[in-house]
Amino acid sequence: MRINVQPVKLFLAILFFASPEIATAEVSETIHKGDVVVVPLRGEVAPSLLAFLRRAVKTAESDEASSIIFDMNTYGGRLDTAADIVNALNQTKIPTYTFINTNAGSAGALIAIATQHIYMSPVSAIGAAAPILPTGEDLPATAKEKTISYWSALIRGSAIKNGHNPDVAEAFMNKDKEVKIGDRVVHPKGAILTLNAQEATERINDKPLLAEGIVDSIANLTKKAGLKANIANIEPTGFEQVAFWITALAPLLLLLGILGAYLEFKIPGVTWPGIISAICFALFFLGHYLAGLAGWEVVALFILGMVLVLIEILFFAHTTIVFGVVGVFLMLASLLWTMVDRYPGQNFLPSGKMLAMPLLNMFIAIVGSVIVIALLARYLPRTSIYRRFALMDSNPPGPSLTGAPRKFATALPLSPGTRGTAVTVLRPSGKARFADHVVDVVTEGEFIAPQTQVAVIQTDGMRVIVKSAE
Known about the structure:
With 470 residues, the chain is α/β, with parallel strands linked by helices.
């Protein structure tokens, strides 16, 4: 059963103050089984374009489209982004077409080679994919040699997979590559290869050099390629840029989410850490959803894990750890699964390559959280801000739990080592009974259940610090 996510996307458009045009374009996307999906690929090849194309490819495959046509007009952009796009296109299970609508320069040529069929408009060009610095200057000699060697291998492999001439593809970026078909030298060494529509469609030995034909529109392409299904369009939205930044900041969002949850649990009477934690986790899941990396099922898995952890804390503290362990496992699994770039039709269990970056992000977040939490547990109880919130929670108006007026620590001979019993949950502040007196106490970050024996570590005016005596 397929869930209609268009109302969700409309809500997100309103939430992020997207323009009405963007919201309408997104919601109007309706892809039926067997449709030909047209995806625009225009402007600079940048990370935001990657987020859009990844979403488009996964949407087309999930909705069982018959083919994808990329309407291309780009002068190129970042090679690292082009590599990710090439990787995404090479994983598709449905036929892919590129319609070069004027330009497929630089990184655009690499992307076109990653599709199975190429068509060009009458006045268009493809090629000139030599790597350069962001400033437009040539790479240093050593770096240039290594870069060209790597990218030549990558583009050759992509060309072979998609049925294109690998020598032509390599010549787009390596000026020392000669293109020879039979006895004819199509392109000599000494210059980067660029082809216009007429050159790219020239037939040599009854096979086109690169492009399969010249067309002047998408409609003409579908007719010439024999694609008779209805055409559906997927347009980019303002969310793709947001999604890129959110996914790039995934370790930071996880770190802040974990720390916010810890502070919410440890500082009584304060709600802002919990709000921050909820916002960070919501942005984490939302960004990966918009980037086409995750669905809403991972959110349900995370919420289920959180519910199990709360059940452990509220009902089974110090009696069993089953609920807590299972809950933490489900939460971590959902966070990890959210970051896995999995395409429809792939094996359910991700490969090591697919897990590499998610595991690195998770490792950074967990190690960072452990370090910061250790520092907070040691130094937070000593701060004035923490003591103020602890006293606000520990000294509510009205009578004490014993029905008698509250006794302050300074009125009792509470020296280090004095033993008592926790009356309330110490998380880490609460109340403890010493002889016939109930006083406000605080731990150094330790969680202590009611009716647990405690011992005084030190006193500081009205502040009594205790630890578990068991």
